[in-house]
Known about the structure:
- The protein has helices at residues 4-17, 29-55, 64-100.
- It is mainly alpha-helical and 101 residues long.
Amino acid sequence: xxxxxxxxxxxxxxxxxxxxxxxxxxxxxxxxxxxxxxxxxxxxxxxxxxxxxxxxxxxxxxxxxxxxxxxxxxxxxxxxxxxxxxxxxxxxxxxxxxxxx
Length: 101
């Protein structure tokens, strides 16, 4: 499983790597931020739903290996949500600083 942040970083790198794009393909900073945030939100939401579905299967909860996997997935989910929150806050702060200057 590729972390959601790595997928987003790969997608962003693919967009940035082509510096020969013509001007009609320009995307505003707001649109890029909204697109990146929405893609991450969807991916994180899907991971949360997958974790909750596993928790609803009573037979699996008696297996320590499955519980360890769920704990690891929950930890990764928490880290990804925290990172998205921090990156969004920092990006908004940077954009506000640029707009003030």
